[in-house]
Amino acid sequence: MQRQSLGRVGIGLTFLLSVAPSAVCVSAPAVKLPMAQIVRARRAHFKELGRAMKALADQLRESHPDWSIVVRDSNRMTRLAGDLPGWFPVGSGPESGLTTRARASIWAEPTGFTHASQVLAARVRDLASAVSSRDRPLAHARAVAVGRACGSCHRQFRAHSSWW
Fold first, then answer.
1. 3-state class of 158 per DSSP?
2. Does some domain include residue 100?
3. Distance CA 94, CA 71 (A)
4. What are the contacts of 139-148 at 24+ separation with CB within 8 A?
5. pLDDT value of position 64
6. What's 135's domain CATH number?
7. Could you tell me the pTM of the whole model?
8. Which residue among 30, 80, 139, 144 is buried most deeply as judged by most CB within 10 Å?
9. Is 80 in contact with 52 (CB distance < 8 Å)?
């Protein structure tokens, strides 16, 4: 009887030891990325957003745009614009000591930055709506509005590059 009892304890202990590590991993807090990695990712996201905007605008200048490209890039811009505020965690600005064109005003004036990113997201959604209707003149006008939203935010929250 004792032997059977130890067998059950052994099985229970084996189960507990095999499950416990995975339970600990599931409940462990998320690992924070190093600031350098965050800044590199932010740059990559902005480059992707810029490439999508350029490809879309180039197509809309054509008399017969390739709507598959326009739709693809409109969708990409919608996703990226919605994610944009998350690219600027506290500590990823100039105070990090890393090379970044993000001004400290992003964190000093979070309401203004949030508003600017919301305006961009709204303009991109307007563009996506025009793209879905395949109305080239309307989509072009909405793309110009997206460009203005980008420029407005850049004037307030992005430092100038030393090469221009």
1. strand
2. yes
3. 36
4. 139/60, 139/70, 140/57, 140/60, 140/61, 143/53, 143/56, 143/57, 143/60, 146/53, 146/77, 146/120, 147/53, 147/57, 148/123
5. 94
6. 1.20.120.10
7. 0.76
8. 139
9. yes
Indicate the helix (H) or strand (E) that contains 147: helix 136-157
Cβ proximity of 131 and 139 under 8 Å? yes
Sign of CA dihedral 29, 35, 36, 39: positive
Task: Give 37's DSSP letter.
Answer: H
Counting other chains too, the contacts that 47-50 makes at CB distance below 8 Å and 24 or more residues apart are: 48/76, 48/80, 49/76, 49/77, 49/80, 49/81, 49/84
**Are 58 and 3 in a shared domain?**
no
10-residue mean pLDDT profile of the chain (164 residues): values are: 44 38 36 83 96 97 96 97 95 92 94 96 98 96 97 91 54
Q: For residue 117, give the amino acid letter.
A: S
Phi and psi for 29 in degrees, rounded to 5? -65, 155
Q: Residue 10's domain spans which residues?
A: 1-31
Contact 127, 142 (CB under 8 A): yes
**The two structure tokens encoding residue 132:** 């879905």
